């Protein structure tokens, strides 16, 4: 299993009137997690784009376990979830660095769209197949 | 089954560099859907607050079916999902009004937190039990 | 002077941990104001785009006069500010509909970029000159 | 003059359908700049809060000089602007690290609100007067 980690300071603008991070912002933290994963393992968004694909999110899930307050920092652990289909799947664990608690877990699924035609690619693209082989996933 | 509908014009700021609505913004559309539902059926956030509770989202899911572009409008259908536990559950259907397509579906689950102690309320609050009875859900 | 008005309900996600609308969100309200103005006076973003131009914001200002809380609605008044140069300028007044107070005022300036070359258009585009004549501004 | 610097990677969600960072997101970059300044010079938001004050933004300005694209990083330089009144003022310079260009400049002004009464503090708070003296501003 391959995974990456990134630490994020909470922005004041990410809180809401309950005084905690607004639930929808976790999708931004997951995005930060994917970016960090991409940099570490050579699967950056722009590299995929250069291979001819957009990789939009088609499914996402968040389970909130505990609130996060302004002034706290979080760590996002992003784990690659192997799949035989032409998809990119991740699981996320968000840890409140101040309390040590897991504050959220989540999942995303991405597909490959041809960047010119915007049609769905049903076959695993060659570059991705090679990337999987290199990373043994 | 009780449900409400609301139409939303896409903000330019809600699009991303793929030219479509950024996936995370659907949680804002679901929020707009809940607001509309609350207004229609008397379950507004501030009314719940007056009864002594916060109702944070503890779980959310989005399935994207088709992209939405700037210049298009969407309709969010918000359906109440009955449950015996002390929770508020909704299902959402987002329809692209320009194309007629369902562009996303989703779910959210909310719990009741005592607004003073921020502890989880495990028993269905009285006002909510009465609301459910009145609405036969 | 030509102007338009639009009413907006505050989204919970637009509040911050001070319990009020986060200051940066007023730029979204100004955007809503411009959209409403565009619809009313035939100067929609996509119409301008069809004439060959992007019109990015190059300058914006916000003066906050009073806070806005969740549960309140605002009205954005968008006034066109005439200019001889190849620019689109607006002034905004945001009124808290619940209290009657002016809660913010602001300004934006947009320029014309050729949508293919992304170079700045220094001469007022024909379609815009005609639009100004028609609207006597 | 005292100033701080922070580098920020652009989030995909911060771009818009023009393919560049949406103009309103610069207020988030300014916020990141203030946070970095606060950490460096001991003027953190939560420290101010502990002294009894909220410090909301009452005025902000952004001048955009050049676009920033996804995949690029920016540097925000935050300069403290001395004032005799009970205010906190900053100037910002956003540099595109990929091109070396200044892509935006801006300003913000904050006031002191008593955190209990939410009334405006017209006299410079003691802790802030001492902070200014220590930092010779």
TrEMBL record, chains A, B, C, D:
Tell me which Pfam families the record gives.
4HBT_2 (PF13279)
Q: Which UniProt keywords apply?
A: Hydrolase
Supply the CDD domains for this chain.
4HBT
Membrane-spanning residues: none
Could you tell me which InterPro entries the record lists for this protein?
A: 4-hydroxybenzoyl-CoA_TE, HotDog_dom_sf, YbgC/YbaW
EC number(s) given by UniProt: 3.1.2.28
- Asked if the Swiss-Prot or TrEMBL record annotates the protein with the keyword Hydrolase, the reply is yes
Tell me the leader sequence span.
Answer: none
Tell me yes or no: is Transit peptide among this UniProt entry's keywords.
no
Instruction: Report the GO molecular function annotations.
Output: 1,4-dihydroxy-2-naphthoyl-CoA thioesterase activity
The UniProt similarity line reads: Belongs to the 4-hydroxybenzoyl-CoA thioesterase family.
State the name under which the record lists this protein. Answer: 1,4-dihydroxy-2-naphthoyl-CoA hydrolase
Q: Which organism is it from?
A: Dyadobacter linearis
Lineage of source species: Bacteria, Pseudomonadati, Bacteroidota, Cytophagia, Cytophagales
